Amino acid sequence: xxxxxxxxxxxxxxxxxxxxxxxxxxxxxxxxxxxxxxxxxxxxxxxxxxxxxxxxxxxxxxxxxxxxxxxxxxxxxxxxxxxxxxxxxxxxxxxxxxxxxxxxxxxxxxxxxxxxxxxxxxxxxxxxxxxxxxxxxxxxxxxxxxxxxxxxxxxxxxxxxxxxxxxxxxxxxxxxxxxxxxxxxxxxxxxxxx
Length: 194
Hints:
Elements: H1 3-10, H2 14-24, E1 27-38, E2 41-52, E3 56-63, E4 67-72, E5 75-80, E6 85-91, H3 95-99, E7 107-115, E8 118-125, E9 134-140, E10 148-154, E11 158-169, H4 185-193
Antiparallel strand pairs: 1-2, 1-11, 2-3, 3-4, 4-5, 5-6, 7-8, 8-9, 9-10, 10-11
């Protein structure tokens, strides 16, 4: 059998991937790198995210400083580790679903192409309140788990990119993970030395 035909037969369309996530995926874990470029100055952050259907998201920046963003249902909270206080900062019904590939009402698929042993999908934002302009998702031809996702936003003075990698599909996540906050060691150490 022709090698091209084999690749064609085992690759997935976006519709199949989206349906798979909608029907089979309850939770997602990933590690990320977040990059801000403003007026030529670049800042890079590293962390982890957890998302769960029914409106839960935890977005933890670990380096260089610890920051935590929670989403519970449609409310978005920022957590202050030093004061141990969470503050509601805005509402968004989209964020948890966004990280579970429920993009139907948010983005339009602009390009789908096979490159070697990878299938790439490029999306552009519909007219919603989300700040991300473009999403690039990279999947192995024979797997519905992405190995890299780039979420990109840019304006005249700011470029913003989140690169998600090391995906785990359906890790066991209790709702408590989205409510309980563990203070990072770096902050514990600061308080101890005072």
